[in-house]
Amino acid sequence: MSGVLRRCGQAFQQRAQIQSTVVRQQRRGFAAEGEHGEKKINFWEGPTRISEWKEEQIVLGVLGAWGIGIYTAMKAFGGKKEEPAPAH
Questions:
Q1: Which of 20, 21, 29, 52 could form a disulfide linkage to 33, CB 3.0–4.6 angstroms apart?
Q2: How many CB atoms sit inside 10 A of residue 41's CB?
């Protein structure tokens, strides 16, 4: 009986070692972890280095610039229309 238990115990230990090896191999960190690609900065840390800004901050800057451009064009070209004074 002890021989059977010993073999079962050995088989269990071998299986546990194989599973722990598989778990170690499959374990992954976050994709953003570490130094991958270029380092991006916030726009207030380098306002003149637009190529290094984070992508979402570039989008906000472009949308803001379009908004200012459209607002300025509306004020410049779409202002009040003055009606001529009635003739007496």
A1: 29
A2: 14
Dist CA 48 CA 33 (whole Å) = 27
In the block, tokens 């778990």 appear at: 23
Q: How many residues are there in the chain?
A: 88
Q: How many domains does the chain have?
A: 1
* Beta-bridge mates of residue 53: 41
Domain of residue 46 covers 2-26+41-77
Cβ–Cβ under 8 Å, residues 41 and 54: yes
| Whole-number pLDDT of residue 3 | 74
Give the residue with greater pLDDT, 1 vs 42.
42
Residue 87 within any structural domain of the chain: no
Its pTM stands at: 0.47
